[in-house]
Design goal:
With about 450 residues, this protein is α+β, with helices and mostly antiparallel strands. It contains eleven helices and 17 strands. The strands form two sheets. Strands 1, 2, 5, 6, 9, 10, 12, 14 and 17 form a nine-stranded mixed sheet that branches. Strands 8-7-11-4-3-13-16-15 form an eight-stranded mixed sheet. A hairpin with a 2-residue loop joins strand 7 and strand 8. Helix 1 packs antiparallel against helix 5, helix 5 (about 300-310) runs antiparallel to helix 7 and helix 7 (about 335-355) runs antiparallel to helix 8. The longest helix has about 45 residues, at about 5-45. The N and C termini lie close together (about 10 Å).
């Protein structure tokens, strides 16, 4: 039964559109599995600790200011003074802030899903320099200072895994739960000995902080001069926050990164003032930097990216199939095109299911091998030659290899995709340069 060229091309185009239905269903399944994994990761974080952010230490000095106001008795006309007391707090940022941390990572599994936890072992040190008269312009006789303390904000205190001890000017002091100030959220604080109201003191501090968290560790550079150095066994760091490392080294064994900031770059004094006076703390907490320990491209993202190329992949495969039909004068039924297309769609379902249990590269190789073998076996009978079937399978294997290259080289995906389409178009034009398309359209294909 004769088929015109236009009818055959229209049928192929319709099949490609219909194949988008199972592909969209698989893409929805990817989103569903990704959401399920996210819920499991959040559940693991709830039972251990979330991402961590360290803010501090910040020196907090509570005070009570006594004022006297002259008033007049409305009945007798006598004047008298009324005493009032006003509570307040002074806040001081470190002159120097140094943090050196070593971060190790581990995997926690729940079912087929895994969450990456980190354990940081940090040494924090620095110095406070108090201004003369503590920066107060009034007569110090009006002030009564209460016990000062060092406040350290820690976003999830469940992750603290050591007994925190503050070393301050040669003394050892214990931290207590809570940051001691609502502005800084959760954390710890350490009461310190009475300060000289005349100011001018230097306070050298140091403490060790062992912290567990998930996904991300970030630091707020609270010092006038802040220096932070982090080392880890994680080879895929993603540096986050408002400041990139000044120096970094990344290899297969892990990374080392160093940051250095100053008040000129962070404007942290103004951010602290807005936080404690205006209760606008977003700027203070937002001036952070750190590192993310999440796998930058997981199996679900890679599978989702592979599905985005599915339309191009199916179109190229059908184009190769059509060339065999035209050049070899064979009759290929649209149902046979449909079966080949469904096999191509099945590849993405295999890739999704295998990648949840195997490394992505191995899952991709097994899925591609299965589909190439199945389609090659089927096409060898459709094209009435095992040599043609092997040739078609080799072309399909090359396309799978190119697709994997597109997935692996994200920065060059557009370039590689453009070259691939150009190469395929050029091959089609070369192979069909002497073909009589009018003859193809009139003639009935020979079985």
């Amino acid at each position: 039964m004769s088929r015109t060229l236009g009818f055959k091309l229209g049928a192929i185009a319709l099949l490609i559109l219909l194949l988008m239905i199972p592909l969209l269903m698989i893409d929805g399944l990817v989103d569903e599995r990704q959401g399920l994994r996210h819920d499991v990761l959040q559940d693991i974080a709830r039972s251990s600790s979330y991402r961590q952010q360290v803010t501090g230490p910040i020196l907090v000095v509570p005070y009570i200011k006594t004022t006297h106001e002259w008033k007049t008795n409305k009945t007798t006309g006598e004047r008298y003074t009324e005493e009032r007391q006003q509570r307040g707090r002074l806040y001081f940022l470190p002159e120097r802030f140094v943090l050196e941390g070593q971060v190790g990572t581990e995997l926690r599994a729940r079912g087929i899903y895994q969450a990456r936890l980190y354990h940081s072992d940090s040494q924090v040190s620095g110095q406070f320099r108090l201004p003369a008269r503590l920066g107060l312009g009034d007569d110090l006789g009006f002030y009564r200072f209460e016990k000062a303390f060092l406040s350290v904000g820690i976003s999830d205190i469940r992750g603290i895994s050591n007994d925190l001890q503050l070393r301050l000017n040669g003394q050892t002091l214990s931290f207590a739960p809570g940051s001691g100030d609502d502005s800084f959220g959760a954390g710890v604080h350490a009461p310190i000995p009475a300060l000289d109201p005349q100011g001018g003191q230097s306070l050298e501090f140091a403490f060790d902080l062992k912290l567990q968290g998930t996904e991300q560790l970030s630091i707020v550079p609270v010092g006038r001069d802040s220096r932070v150095k982090l080392s880890s066994d994680w080879p895929h760091p993603s540096f986050v926050g408002e400041y990139l490392p000044n120096r970094r080294s990344i290899d297969a064994k892990g990374f080392t990164a160093e940051w250095q900031t100053s008040f000129f770059a962070t404007n942290l004094e103004e951010a602290l003032r807005d936080c404690v006076v205006g209760e606008r703390c977003q700027a203070l907490f937002g001036r952070h930097f750190g590192v993310s320990f999440v796998d930058p491209v997981d199996q679900y993202l890679k599978t989702d990216r592979a599905i985005k190329y599915a339309l191009l992949f199916i179109a190229l495969t059908f184009a190769a199939f059509f060339l065999f039909e035209v050049l070899k004068r064979l009759a290929v039924h649209p149902v046979q095109y449909a079966l080949v297309g469904l096999s191509l769609a099945l590849f993405y379902l295999l890739l999704l299911s295998l990648s949840e249990h195997l490394p992505f590269a191995l899952a991709y190789g097994l899925s591609a091998t299965a589909c190439v073998g199945l389609i090659g076996f089927y096409v060898s009978h459709v094209l009435h030659s095992w040599q043609r079937g092997m040739g078609f399978g080799a072309l399909l294997a090359a396309l799978y290899g190119m697709l994997y290259g597109l997935l692996s080289a994200e920065d060059y995906a557009l370039l590689m995709g453009s070259l691939l389409v150009f190469g395929v178009l050029g091959s089609v034009m070369v192979l069909t340069r002497k073909l009589d398309w009018y003859g193809v359209g009139r003639a009935a294909p020979q079985a």
